[in-house]
Amino acid sequence: MALDAIQKNILHEVADLDGIPQGAYNIRANGTSAGRNTTANIDIVTKEDKPGIDIIIKPGTKGESVHIPVVLTESGLKDMVYNDFYIGEDADVTIVAGCGISNCGDQDSQHDGIHTFHVGKNAKIKYVEKHYGEGDGKGARILNPVTNVYQEEGSYVEMEMVQIKGVDSTVRTNLAELKEGATLLIHEALMTHGSQSATSDYKVLLQGEGSSADVVSRSVAKDDSEQIFEVSIEGDCACNGHAACDAIIMGNAHVVAIPKLDAKNVDAALIHEAAIGKIAGDQLIKLMSLGLTEEEAEEQIVAGFLR
Amino acid sequence: MLEIKNLTYRVDDEGDCTKEIIDGLDLTVEDGKFIVITGPNGGGKSTLAKLIMGVNQLTSGQIILDGVDISEKNITERAKMGISFAFQAPVHFKGIRVIDLLRLAAGEKISVAEACEYLSKVGLCAKDYVDREVNSSLSGGELKRIEIATVLARGTKLSIFDEPEAGIDLWSFQNLIKVFENMRKTINGTIIVISHQERILNIADEIVVIENGKVKAKGPKDEILPGLLGTSAAASIACEMLGGDQ
Q: How far apart are CA B123 and CA B173, in angstroms?
């Protein structure tokens, strides 16, 4: 199936793709497959019992990437997929997911992606997930992603979740379980505007000695939008957990941060930081003294903050 | 030319009282001069600098730049007309890198090499800094120099530095003096520095002493500086240098 111009633009927004990606990929457009490629080390198999795919990465695979973008341009489409990743021991790969919705119609469009990662011993992955919405129809653009991450001993997972524009409603649910010596880094960048709402719920279970997690969220809430950020880190052993939520609030927005730390061992070191506030006046003054208008200064501050 | 006429800045004091921080001040600064404004703490030096940039709004009087009355103009308009300002306490930005700030200052997409040149001029090893965020991971002295570099990158006809020596250690200060000595030779526009430091006073064309919101003395360095060094003002400067009150 060939992609049209709108779909190509969305692909560019969510996956930085301007053509067919290198390596393994699976492109899903309006609920069906629009292209797939596998490599000697990375196999992609369609699930038989439910919608979705299994992505199987052989042990020891190094330097390869998998792109699995999703594009929705049909108004009224409700799409749900289960994507399971099996990352073999000692592999080192980059996974780029992402979903873009262009809804010019009056019915809601929705994509719920349930991603489960089984990360083998000493494997290392970088996961990038971008969400984007566009279109001037009355129908809402809804994305409800779920990620479940199961990390074996010594594995390393870095997740970058970005949602900057155009998604009306999001509920993000993330669960991670870490065994001995495993490391998890999560960086979330979120901007809501208009009457959008976004909820992020992170639950991290540090179950193995020496495991560590760092969950960092930077968000900007504009206009009448609403954000709820909930993070819970549980330490059962000698481990390190850190969560930080930093939000800029503008207009009539509403931002809620709910931290929870749960230590069950004297050597569990868990830290949480949360800050919500407006753009500092002295930041605006400094940029205006460089010749920017107040609006331009705000844009620069927000763009830098969400970088 | 910068002309300040009968400038007043009044604030609400305790109770129903008001207080003139700047009290009918007159000052003319000619083009291409290196002016150092000094005087005791609380005398109105920094307030005057902020009134020129538009950070504070004047109560009455006029500020005229090259014949144009800028009294009612906002910060952005004054910046575009050619005024730059290095703040006494540089601002932190989460996520904005040194290179971003220098690009915004230059008003164009300058190359990394050009940005590095500005950093080198303020004594920073450029490659270590261009990609760093302008946040609290940088020391006070580093932030101060980056602040000065943004003013250099703008290259405007009037540059104002509000106590560049404040908040930096003695070691950084030695380098900072060199930055100003160098700027003195290379910059084409007018420079106004608010300072207590004898070594900065020493490279001035003219010194302006401000006390109680008024110009107490103004003249060539050779006329003003010897008097300052032998007066109570000098004693107060010395006290401030030592970090104590007057």
A: 11
Residues 263-302 of A with CB under 8 A from B: 280, 282-283, 285-294, 300-301
What's the CA gap between B135 and B100, in Å, rounded? 13
Distance CA B185, CA A129 (A): 52
Q: Which of B91, B107, B154 sits opposite A286 (nearest CB)?
A: B91
What architecture (CATH level 2) is domain B2-88+162-241?
3-Layer(aba) Sandwich (3.40)
Say if residues A75 and A103 touch (Cβ distance below 8 Å).
yes
Token representation of residue A53? 């795919």
Across the interface, do B76 and A306 touch by the CB < 8 Å criterion? no
Q: B23-38 burial by CB neighbour count: b if 16+ within 10 A, else e?
A: bebebebeeeebbbbb
3-state SS, residue B202: coil
User: Between residues 32 and 71 of chain B, which touch chain A (CB distance below 8 Å)?
Assistant: 53, 55
User: A152-175 in b/e burial notation, b at 16+ Cβ within 10 A?
Assistant: bbbbbbbbebbbbebbbbbbbbbb
Distance of CA A8 to the CA centre of its chain: 21
pTM of the model as a whole: 0.84
**For residue B186, what is the DSSP state?**
H
E-strand stretches of A179-211: 183-192, 197-206
Sequence ranges of the domains in chain B: 2-88+162-241
Residues B19, A218: Cα–Cα separation, whole Å: 43
State in Å, rounded, how far the first CA of chain A is from the last one.
34
Pairing of strands A24-29, A62-72: parallel
Model pLDDT for residues B53-68, shown as the tens digit of each residue: 999 999 999 999 999 9
Question: How close does chain A come to B245, measured CA to CA in Å?
Answer: 27
CB A139 within 8 A of CB A108: yes
pLDDT in tens, B125-148: 778 888 899 988 998 888 988 999
Q: Answer whether B79 touches A (CB < 8 Å).
A: yes
pLDDT band at B246 (very low <50, low <70, confident <90, very high): very low
Q: Mutation test of the interface with chain B: which of A289, A293, A295, A298, choosing the one with the most B Cβ atoms within 10 A? A: A289
CA of A115 vs chain B CAs: smallest distance (Å) = 29
The answer to whether the beta carbons of residues A222 and A251 sit under 8 Å apart is yes
Q: Could you give the CA distance from residue A91 to residue A50 in angstroms, rounded to a whole number?
A: 27
Contacts of B100 in chain A (CB under 8 A): 300, 304
Q: Which stretch of DSSP H or E encloses residue A181?
A: none
User: Distance from CA of residue A258 to its chain's centroid?
Assistant: 19
> B242: pLDDT confidence band, cut at 50, 70 and 90?
low
CB atoms within 10 A of CB B44: 24
CB A279 within 8 A of CB A252: no
By C-alpha distance, the chain B residue nearest A283 is B91
Note whether B96 contacts A300, CB cutoff 8 Å: yes
